Here is the input.
Amino acid sequence: MEELKIIARARSHADAIALRTEAREHSYSELIERSSALAATLLGDADDLREARVAYLAPAGIDYIAIQWAICRAGG
Here is the structure.
């Protein structure tokens, strides 16, 4: 599967700040790593979710964005 444009673009800004919260700053590379791990979990033994619907509930923040990216990366 071809890499998503948003992931490729994030890689070009890997060390830049992607999200700043009251507690800390998160880089694009951290976001890429988190979404990759989550995508692998979503996929399990499959190679693509084939546009399956995925529901999630997460508070605003780094996890919310990582989940969105993971779903897209997994083909959901």
About this structure: The chain has a mean pLDDT of 95. The longest helix spans residues 28-43. The radius of gyration is 13 Å. The first strand starts at residue 17 and ends at 20.
